[in-house]
Amino acid sequence: MTSTAITRRGFLRSAVAVGAALALPLVPALPTPRVAASETDDEKPAAPETQVIRPAGPPGFETQWVQTFLQTKLWPSADEMAQPIETVGPERFFRVDGPQEGYRVPVWDARENRWVYIGVEAIGPVGTPAWADYSEDGRWIDVHLSIPQHLVAMQGDITVFQDLVTAGVERKTKPGFYRILRRVENETMDSRTVPDATHPYLLKNVMYTQYFSGDGSAIHQNWWASSWGYPASQGCLGMRTGGAKYMWDWAGVGTPLAIHY
């Protein structure tokens, strides 16, 4: 899959969602190897893409993004009055996916990947969030190559998880827009499959590998590294075991990544 550069707008908007600074060890490590995407070790079947059916609007209806400016309730239908789903605060994003029904409109809530109704008295129009350009179920991965190098799992506009990574030396991890292409739960990494490898390696039992580029770049467990937050790989995003396992459970084939400095 050919990657395309993510816009500066996407970088600036996604950066706002990143949490507090992360503590950084300063111990150097050997470069993290990379394995070509043609590797055929025991592969876990690809997880099916999330299938969500939008409300059927009239012909010509165009979706639009809105944001709450008051505390308000979310409802399961246009006419339910007794049992709201949740109370939400100001500055919450929703996508209007159908025409107004009474005093409410049907909206998609990216934070929960669900359809609900909201009163029109509490919302106003807003520009399309940058992450909405490439995320279909609200999930996306924001990768920062500047020091400290780190990865942030996002659900819409909120952070659900973040951890330090070790990315490519000599800028081998390329900024751009990617999607997870395939996953291998227990991988063997062999330098003979990587034409531009700078040193030989053969590493077995590399867990939770999620490839996002045809050149073999992936998110994966890195049990041999210690320089978290600094470049030390051949192009992959190496993670500590706990972080790699979290991303394995949370992400799936098709989950987008925005990689930038």
What key phrases describe this protein's structure?
mainly beta, 2 helices, 261 residues, L,D-transpeptidase catalytic domain-like, 16 strands, SH3 type barrels, single chain
Written overview of the protein:
It is a single chain. This protein is mainly beta and 261 residues long. It folds into two domains: 8-49 and 136-260, L,D-transpeptidase catalytic domain-like; 64-129, Roll (SH3 type barrels), CATH 2.30.30.40. Helix content is 7%, strand content 33%. It is built from two helices and 16 strands. The chain has helices spanning 8-16, 241-250; strands at residues 64-68, 72-75, 86-88, 93-96, 104-109, 114-119, 123-125, 139-144, 150-155, 158-164, 176-179, 182-190, 202-211, 218-221, 237-239, 256-260. The chain has a seven-stranded antiparallel β-sheet, with no helix packed on it. It has a five-stranded mixed β-sheet with strand order 10-9-8-16-11, with helices on both faces. A hairpin with a 7-residue loop joins strand 4 and strand 5. The longest helix has 10 residues, at 241-250. It is elongated. The relative contact order is 0.24.
**Biggest pleated sheet:** 7 strands, antiparallel
Q: Given the structure, what is the number of helices?
A: 2
- Rg value: 21 Å
| CATH level-four homologous superfamily name of the largest domain | L,D-transpeptidase catalytic domain-like
Query: Biggest sheet: strands side by side, in what order?
Result: 3-2-6-5-4-1-7
CATH topology of the largest domain: L,D-transpeptidase catalytic domain-like
Order of helices and strands: HEEEEEEEEEEEEEEEHE
The CATH class of the largest domain, by name, is: Mainly Beta
Mean pLDDT: 84
Q: Portion of residues in helices?
A: under 10%
Sheet/helix structural class:
mainly beta
Low-confidence stretches: 1-30, 36-44
Q: Do you know the CATH architecture of the largest domain? A: Beta Barrel
How much of the residues is beta strand, in percent?
25-35%
Shape category: elongated
Q: Report the span from N to C terminus.
A: 22 Å
